Amino acid sequence: MAAETVTTGQVVPRPPRGMRHKLRQVRRERSAYAFLAPALICFSVFTAFALLFAFYLTFHEWSIIQPDKPFVGLDNYKDMVHDERFRRSVINTLYYTGAAVPLGMLVGLCVALLLNLPLRGRGLMRAMYFLPGVTPLVVVAIIWKWLYNGDYGLFNYYLLKTHLIHDPLVWLSDKNLAMPAVILMSVWTGTGYSMVVYLAGLQSIPEELYEAARVDGASSFQRLRNITLPLLRPSTLFLAVTQIIWSFQVFTQIFIMTSGGPVDRTTTMVYYVYESAFKFFEMGYASTLAFTLFLMLLVFTAFQLRLHRKATA
Predict the structure, then answer these.
(1) Which of 64, 80, 85, 137 minimizes the C-alpha distance to 260?
(2) What does the domain layout of the chain look like in residue ranges?
(3) pLDDT (tens digit per residue) in 194-239
(4) Is 196 in contact with 109 (CB distance < 8 Å)?
(5) Which architecture, in CATH terms, is 92-312?
(6) What is the pTM of this model?
């Protein structure tokens, strides 16, 4: 076996290389590969193959009910560029993301700051705020749809009781109110998750920093601005990236509460993908929309990570 001499005078054996060594290593660790095989097979079939096949579909006019599935090249992408409903879905998705993500993070931060104080029963309050985040989204959407009901919903009942409105509002049927109503429900649902992430970040900040700031005469607002917020940057970045990814994929609320209406004012990109695939049976076009959504998420994530690197450099 080949060997090499190092500066200390000791002879260190060179690790064997080549295909035979790799095969011997695989045989030696075959039990590990056997345990990994089911997960690898599922990933290969339902993720890797599905992704490649979806990309293949983007170049075909692939309909479930039509036997002919001709190759159309880039026609699906050209149709997408000129599709008015696609442009509306992009605008709706950006509107939802631009409102729901910052608002949800802000509310989550405020709740986390409050529940990080030594309050009596704060453990119970944390659980109560986090409860909507672990409740099935379908259940939450149905409950909020009842709350928004124009005839017997609680929102209209209390607004009429307090004389803030004179006529019942049709929350989910009004083109100006439907998306804000969905955003309000999403913020309520996601506050608990943001709260938990920010609480973890707050509890990792050394108490000595706050004590030193108090000795120097810093006010509560100055401690928040100069200590808490800068040290919460990693938590904020994590929340921003994950929440934007999730908000771009919003579907359940739209499907249950508005079905994309009224007049496409709540049709998001994922809901439009669903319609193209399972209402109009245009699998090729739906795959094109899905890959466009993936590229948009990739660009947004890369942009956020670059901004974070510049801010921490």
Answers:
(1) 85
(2) 92-312
(3) 999 999 999 999 999 999 999 989 898 999 999 999 999 989 999 9
(4) no
(5) Orthogonal Bundle (1.10)
(6) 0.85
